[in-house]
Amino acid sequence: MAALEAKRIRGLSVRDVRFPTSLEMQGHGSDAMHNNPDYSCAYVVIFTETELKGHGFSFTIGKGTEIVIEAVKSLSPMVVGRNLDEIFNNFAGFWRELTSDPQLRWIGPEKGVIHLATAAIVNALWDLWAKRECKTLWKLLVDMDPEKLVSTIDFRYMSDLLTKEEAIEILRRNEPLKMLNEHKVLQSGIRAYTNRCGWIGFDDNKIRKLCKENLSAGFTSFKLKVGLDLEQDKRRLSLVRKEIGPENKLMVDANQCWEVPEAIDWMKELAEYKPLWIEEPTSPDDILGHATIAKELNPLGIGVATGEHCHNRVMFKQFLKSGGMQFCQIDCCRLGGVNEVLAVYLMAAKLGIPVCPHAGGVGLCELVQHVATWNAIAVNPEDTVSMIEYVDHLHEHFKHPILMIEGRYMIPQSPGYSTEMKESSLIAYEFPNGTKWKELFNSGKYRKFSVPQWVENKCFPQN
Question: Could you give the residue numbers annotated as active site?
Answer without folding.
Answer: 225, 358
